[in-house]
Amino acid sequence: MPVTRIAIRAGKPATYRKALMHEVYEAMRDVFGVPEDDFFMALSEHEEDTLLFGRSYLGIERSDDFVLIQITASNTRSEEVKKALYRRIAERLSASPGIRGEDVFVNLVEVTKANWSFGRGEAQLI
Amino acid sequence: MPVTRIAIRAGKPATYRKALMHEVYEAMRDVFGVPEDDFFMALSEHEEDTLLFGRSYLGIERSDDFVLIQITASNTRSEEVKKALYRRIAERLSASPGIRGEDVFVNLVEVTKANWSFGRGEAQLI
Amino acid sequence: MPVTRIAIRAGKPATYRKALMHEVYEAMRDVFGVPEDDFFMALSEHEEDTLLFGRSYLGIERSDDFVLIQITASNTRSEEVKKALYRRIAERLSASPGIRGEDVFVNLVEVTKANWSFGRGEAQLI
Questions:
Q1: Which of A12, A66, A98, C43: disulfide with A16, CB 3.0–4.6 Å?
Q2: Residue B59 structural domain
Q3: pTM of the full predicted structure?
Q4: Contact B82 A122 (CB under 8 A)
């Protein structure tokens, strides 16, 4: 059920954007127990002056390839599972489309199972 | 007080977007106890490769008219009220601008009453 | 660690957008205990029909300069600190780039410390 919003700098080819979104989904499949075909993702591309980030906050050197990922999901995962997700997203994005781990920022927002309607005006999870 | 963010595929006329946003607001008026004039909504339009969704997740057949609606609201509604909201949004969007229930995805994010400032630097709800 | 998403009407110069984002960051530095260089912000510009808001909800007269600010942060701040943040954002934006307090809308979304990865696939706050 996650809703994923991703923000990147403009200028990447479609294959890059496609791989980025796909690998984040696959990472959720790997460690978040997300079923096949359960992805709802929007990506926005930004000019230099509308996506800002600390270039070295916490000693991590970020580049123009910075990726801001916000995932809204149900509040059912342990801290260990969340840590595994961060690791897995970084690993997958490093392999394809080739994003350095330093450039991968992830923020989770958690909600209850009553907070989802996947269609037809129904609350499918309660 | 809800903040509503909507993502759709690009290519719809302004009348369609206007009806979509208006009907989501009216659904919140109907069942969420939202006062008149209490709407704060942003819509983003996406090319095919920047708005992705499972075409048949949970057996619901989604089309290019898919609408991703994220509503941030105070945490004061029961499960029954949330279910009524999903139903009402689907009913209203089906009537105008004519969106199939299968294409209407809704996700609620809940916050406390201290988490709002409607202007003037004040926290109007506490 | 906050993630800040800002929506405004299109048509402002880059200096305006830059000042807007910078001052919101400085307000978080002032009262939210945000460290130097800790900013992750995306701004979206909207045509008239994709950013809607109640023009006089709660008796506050909003103009086309309306700014919708959503901040996702850890759930560690008291109500007093949140109120101080709203005040500070309004004060700073009034000074630069010159936005009336009536046009400044702020919504906070709170998450736990486990919900952040600032890079390298790590959960730096736990």
A1: A12
A2: 3-115
A3: 0.97
A4: no
